[in-house]
């Protein structure tokens, strides 16, 4: 598929998902958000589920890309990770968080969605665990189990997403809790990382 066409379909999917939600999302509504016809979109994606699977893959790739510039200092890597996770896109007023929550709610019924969400979870836990492991080895962090720390951080992030969407809670509340836990558990300091 031509890159420009795929990018247009992905951007239109995001806009339509944010505007209409998962339940009301149709290929027609995606087409309405683009310069493409429904036939053109169907030419590239047989079903809405296939399109949404690709959309989740693009979202995962974008997130992974933001984390790609890995600093050698594990303290900086943790800070970068938290900045990426807790910094919403410039053009987002919370609609994408709602849309993503709706897709997460579909995961028990769509294995392909669940697989993509598992990939996202594994990526996040891997970034945190690697930074913790490297920080312990370089004597920047106190000894701790990297996998346990990663699971705790990512679980808190997932809970933050639910609390933000369902309760209107500011994600910065959880970020402060995560940072406090990392300071206490590891001796990590975001001020040192900067």
From TrEMBL:
<dbReference type="Pfam" id="PF13977">
    <property type="entry name" value="TetR_C_6"/>
</dbReference>
<keyword id="KW-0804">Transcription</keyword>
<dbReference type="InterPro" id="IPR009057">
    <property type="entry name" value="Homeodomain-like_sf"/>
</dbReference>
<dbReference type="InterPro" id="IPR039538">
    <property type="entry name" value="BetI_C"/>
</dbReference>
<dbReference type="Pfam" id="PF00440">
    <property type="entry name" value="TetR_N"/>
</dbReference>
<keyword id="KW-0238">DNA-binding</keyword>
<keyword id="KW-0805">Transcription regulation</keyword>
<dbReference type="GO" id="GO:0000976">
    <property type="term" value="F:transcription cis-regulatory region binding"/>
</dbReference>
<protein>
    <submittedName>
        <fullName>TetR/AcrR family transcriptional regulator</fullName>
    </submittedName>
</protein>
<keyword id="KW-0678">Repressor</keyword>
<dbReference type="InterPro" id="IPR050109">
    <property type="entry name" value="HTH-type_TetR-like_transc_reg"/>
</dbReference>
<dbReference type="InterPro" id="IPR001647">
    <property type="entry name" value="HTH_TetR"/>
</dbReference>
<feature type="DNA-binding region" description="H-T-H motif">
    <location>
        <begin position="26"/>
        <end position="45"/>
    </location>
</feature>
<feature type="domain" description="HTH tetR-type">
    <location>
        <begin position="3"/>
        <end position="63"/>
    </location>
</feature>
<dbReference type="GO" id="GO:0003700">
    <property type="term" value="F:DNA-binding transcription factor activity"/>
</dbReference>
<dbReference type="InterPro" id="IPR036271">
    <property type="entry name" value="Tet_transcr_reg_TetR-rel_C_sf"/>
</dbReference>
<dbReference type="InterPro" id="IPR023772">
    <property type="entry name" value="DNA-bd_HTH_TetR-type_CS"/>
</dbReference>
């Amino acid at each position: 598929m031509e890159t420009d066409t795929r990018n247009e379909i992905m951007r239109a999917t995001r806009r339509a998902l944010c505007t209409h939600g998962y339940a009301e999302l149709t290929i027609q509504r995606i087409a309405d958000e683009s310069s493409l016809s429904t036939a053109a979109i169907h030419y590239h994606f047989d079903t809405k589920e296939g399109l949404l699977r690709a959309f989740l893959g693009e979202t995962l790739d974008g997130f992974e890309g933001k984390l790609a510039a890995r600093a050698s200092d594990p303290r900086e890597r943790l800070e970068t990770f938290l900045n990426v996770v807790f910094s919403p896109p410039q053009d987002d007023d919370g609609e994408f968080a709602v849309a993503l929550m709706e897709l997460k709610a579909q995961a028990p019924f769509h294995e392909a969605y669940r697989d993509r969400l598992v990939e996202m979870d594994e990526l996040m836990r891997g970034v945190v665990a690697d930074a913790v492991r490297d920080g312990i080895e370089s004597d920047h962090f106190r000894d701790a189990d990297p996998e346990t720390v990663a699971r705790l951080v990512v679980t808190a992030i997932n809970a933050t997403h639910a609390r933000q969407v369902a309760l209107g809670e500011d994600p910065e509340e959880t970020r402060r809790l995560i940072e406090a836990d990392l300071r206490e558990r590891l001796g990590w300091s975001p001020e040192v990382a900067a």
